[in-house]
Amino acid sequence: MDAGVLIGIAVLVWIYAMLVMEVLHRTAVALMGAAAVFVINIFLRFGDFRDLIEYIDMDTILLLMSMMVIVSALSRTGFFEWLAARLVARFGSKPAALLVVLSAFTAFISAFIDNVTTVLLITPVVIETFTYLKVDPRPAVLSIIFASNIGGTATLIGDPPNILIGSATDLGFMDFIYNLTPAVALSFLAFSVVILYVFRDWLTSFKGVESAEAKIKDFPLLERVGLALAVVIGLFFAEDVIGYPPAVAAIIGVGILLAVARGSVDIEDAIRDVDWSTLVFFMGMFMVIGGIKGLGVIDFIADSLVGVSTDPAVLAVLIMWVSAIVSAFIDNIPFVMAMIPVITSIAATLGVNHEPLFWALSLGGCFGGNGTLVGASANIVASGLSEKYGYPISFRSFSKYGFPVMLTTVAVATAYVLLRYYYFVG
To answer: How far is it, in rounded angstroms, from Cα 138 to Cα 222?
Structure first.
């Protein structure tokens, strides 16, 4: 292990210690981490400082900003309150059923729309619903975050790591559904048991509400926002065929919204409603991850797997669990990018089928995002929304529930991969 890797690991430990202790707001910690890797760059010269800035994924930033504008406009119509009232009327006296239904719906949507967009749309509904029920909505927000990361694993387009794997291999859309959807379904069932157990005290605090009243406040605006949102979702489905990033769809949607609702949506108000703290956090963490990647930390982790075993079943388990643990603390996108050529090389050297190893990488990388608050983009976005509503979610409280969910789902996925590809199929 060279000095660069040691320094990179030390930077990560320092940043996560700050996040766990909550000495500063997470955005301030991310900016401090970015400053640290800039300083390290000056002394070690592992790359031009402009390279760190280029690690900022502007597709993600623009996607988030655009969807925040659309969600802000949708919130002014009263749609979230209206939908929450309908949910309360149907499940107000059945809190466990309500929690599972919301989670299942989130998981399903996340399989076809990216996780970030899903939680942006569903988190306000969840918060409004449980506000009607006069209970803390944070356990429900956590549940839909976990569900979005689980459900997004089911398809090629549901989570960025799957897109990376699909583009680097000959695995297509139906390959992902055929191989990963059963694992996701089993893992979701296990997840449902876990959340009903860990949130059992919260669920018993419900007094029950039989009905709630809420009306749409602005139908014309709702129609215009609905048009923009329909265009965005339609373009999301077409992006895999045409080949543009998700941010393009979201920007087009915002353009349509501002054009058709120019009398109802003021651009200055829309910009003020953007959660800039969350966006700046992402920018800082992108630079941090880029910095430690430049120091060789991610490549070191990937390469360390190669010499452990030549048994493909053992390698699949190692890949899944290392991917899950690393993805809980480091964005899974650069890790998956580093692992793809490693897995290809391992499969070619050993003469084994590479597909189960890639399914292990996908399941570990996506499920691992539930481990900590910074494990996936959806986690930060939903927690930022929750904070805007007055319900902040701390790093420690997220990990308290997220880590058991991660361990359970990865354990189920491990059993699935071993039984399907190695013990029964051979």
So the answer is: 27
The C-alpha atoms of residue 140 and residue 391 are separated, in whole angstroms, by 12
Q: How far apart are CA 231 and CA 239, in angstroms?
A: 12
What's the pTM value of the predicted model, to 2 decimals?
0.79
CA 74 to chain centre: 22
Measure CA 182 to chain center: 20
Contact between 271 and 231 (Cβ < 8 Å)? no
**Residue 290: is it exposed, middle or buried by C-beta count within 10 angstroms (0-12/13-18/19+)?**
buried
CA 113, 154, 67 angle in degrees (round to 5)?
15
Structure tokens at 52: 């760190």
| SS3 at position 233 | helix
**Please, what is the angle between helix 312-329 and helix 297-304, to 10°?**
160
* Residue burial 87-105, b: 16+ Cβ < 10 Å; e: rest: bbeebbeebbebbbebbeb
Q: How many domains does the chain have?
A: 1
Residues sharing a CB contact under 8 Å with residue 344, sequence separation 6 or more, in sequence order: 168, 169, 354
* H/E element, 304: helix 297-304
Token pair 């080949």: residue = 243
Q: Which helix (H) or strand (E) holds 75?
A: helix 58-76
Question: Where do runs of H (alpha helix) occur along 351-394?
Answer: 355-367, 377-388
> What CA–CA distance (Å, rounded) separates 42 from 201?
51
Environment class of residue 21 by beta-carbon count within 10 Å: exposed (0-12), middle (13-18) or buried (19+)?
exposed
Domain that holds residue 417: 3-423
Q: How far apart are alpha carbons 154 and 160 in whole angstroms?
A: 12
> Which contacts (CB < 8 Å, 24+ apart) does range 19-25 have?
19/373, 19/374, 19/395, 20/395, 20/396, 20/399, 22/394, 22/395, 22/396, 25/277
Integer angstrom CA distances of residue 329 from 259, 324, 363: 41, 9, 16
Residues 316-350 pLDDT 10s: 999 999 999 988 887 777 678 777 877 887 887 77
C-alpha to C-alpha distance for 265 and 242, rounded to whole angstroms: 30
- Whole-number Å distance between alpha carbons of 198 and 46: 45
Query: Do you know the residue count of the chain?
Result: 426
Q: Which two tokens stand for residue 127?
A: 């918060």
Low-confidence ranges of the chain (pLDDT < 70): 1, 45-49, 92, 207-214, 239-240, 302, 306-307, 334, 425-426
